[in-house]
Recover the amino acids of this structure.
C-alpha cells in the first residue's frame, strides 16, 4: 500500500483533498505545522473550542495527525521572505513553500511516498497562481499532488507511476466554493469549516499589535508566549518600559493567568474585575497607578473601598 502525507490546515479544501486520496486505497496521515500564527497549538492554551481545526479534520477522516512545532524555525521566513508580503505581514508564498519542504523531509524520514495538499488553482493571490504552484513541484522532486486541481495541472509522479488515478481527481479553480460544497455533500460531510484566513499574519489588527510590540521591545524577535499574549486582551503601553495586558472577560482572565504565572498580576479582590498582567518592572509609584487601572476595569469602579490583589510583586 502506498502512503501519503497530507498537509491539513483545518479547512474544507484539505479535508476534501485527503478524502480523495484515501478513497483510492492509499494510507494517509495528516501533518500540521504550528508557527504560533497558524496551525494547531499542541498545548491548546487559547483554543477551548477546537471544533474546526486540523485535529477536527483528522477526526472526520479517521486518520492520524502529526502536529509539528516550528515556531522558532519560522522566524527567518517571517523576517526575510524571498517573495515578499501580502497585504499585511503574511509571507504566504514563502510560508507555503517552507511548510511543503518541511513536509517532504518528514515524509521521507517516515517512509511516505508523496505529499497531498488542498491547494486550489487561482484561489490565493500569492501562493496558488499558475506560475507559483510549480515552485513546490521543483522543491519536492515532483512528489506533491493537489487532488482538487490536479486535472488542470501538469501530471505528477504519483499519477505517472499509477499510485493515483488521475481520472478520479478534480479540476477545481478559482475562489468560489460551490464545487467544494458539492463534493463535501457527495462524501457525506454535512458539517465542515467555513472559509476563513486562518493565519493571524493576514489580519490587519493583529499585525498592528505585533508591530507595536516589536517597537516596545526594541527588536523584531518574539517567543511563543509573546504571540499568545498578542491574541487576547487590551494592550496598554503604560510607559516605554511597561506594557499592561488586561483581560476582557473571565475566559481571557483564565488564559492570562495560565500564560503568565511568573509575571506581576493585579486584580480587584473585593469586586469582580479584569486580570491585569504587567510586562515590565514597575516602581512603587507606577504600581499604585496600575492598581487604579485594575480598579477602572472592575465592577468596583466608583466604590469607596476596593481591595486589589497583587501577585509576584518585587519592588526594588
Amino acid at each position: 500500500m502506498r502512503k501519503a502525507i497530507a498537509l491539513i490546515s483545518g479547512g474544507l479544501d484539505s479535508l476534501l483533498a485527503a478524502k480523495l486520496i484515501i478513497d483510492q486505497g492509499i494510507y494517509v496521515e495528516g501533518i500540521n505545522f504550528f508557527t504560533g500564527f497558524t496551525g494547531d497549538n499542541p498545548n491548546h492554551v487559547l483554543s477551548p473550542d477546537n471544533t474546526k481545526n486540523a485535529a477536527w479534520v483528522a477526526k472526520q477522516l479517521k486518520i492520524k495527525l502529526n502536529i509539528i512545532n516550528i515556531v522558532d524555525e519560522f522566524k527567518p521566513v517571517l523576517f526575510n521572505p524571498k517573495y515578499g508580503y501580502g497585504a499585511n505581514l503574511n509571507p504566504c508564498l514563502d510560508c507555503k513553500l517552507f511548510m511543503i519542504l518541511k513536509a517532504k523531509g518528514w515524509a521521507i524520514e517516515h517512509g511516505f511516498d508523496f505529499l497531498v495538499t488542498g491547494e486550489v488553482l487561482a484561489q490565493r493571490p500569492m501562493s496558488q497562481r499558475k506560475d507559483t504552484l510549480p515552485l513546490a513541484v521543483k522543491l519536492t522532486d515532483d512528489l506533491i499532488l493537489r487532488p482538487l486541481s490536479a486535472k488542470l495541472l501538469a501530471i505528477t509522479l504519483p499519477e505517472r507511476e499509477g499510485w493515483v488515478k488521475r481520472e478520479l481527481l478534480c479540476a477545481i479553480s478559482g475562489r468560489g466554493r460551490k464545487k467544494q460544497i458539492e463534493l463535501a455533500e457527495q462524501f457525506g460531510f454535512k458539517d465542515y469549516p467555513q472559509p476563513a484566513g486562518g493565519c493571524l499574519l493576514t489580519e490587519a489588527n493583529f499585525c498592528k499589535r505585533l508591530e507595536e510590540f516589536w517597537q516596545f521591545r526594541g527588536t523584531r524577535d518574539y517567543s511563543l508566549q509573546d504571540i499568545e499574549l498578542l491574541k487576547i486582551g487590551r494592550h496598554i503601553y503604560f510607559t516605554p518600559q511597561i506594557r499592561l495586558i488586561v483581560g476582557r472577560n473571565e475566559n481571557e482572565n483564565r488564559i492570562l493567568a495560565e500564560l503568565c504565572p511568573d509575571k506581576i498580576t493585579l486584580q480587584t479582590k473585593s469586586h469582580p474585575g479584569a486580570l491585569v498582567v504587567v510586562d515590565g518592572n514597575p516602581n512603587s509609584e507606577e504600581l499604585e497607578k496600575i492598581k487604579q487601572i485594575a480598579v477602572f476595569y472592575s465592577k468596583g469602579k466608583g466604590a469607596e473601598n476596593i481591595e486589589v490583589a497583587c501577585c509576584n510583586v518585587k519592588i526594588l
Remarks:
- The chain has two domains: 3-187, 232-311.
- The two ends are 66 Å apart (CA to CA).
- The longest helix spans residues 92-109.
- The beta strands are 3-7, 27-34, 65-69, 114-116, 144-145, 234-239, 242-246, 264-268, 276-279, 308-311.
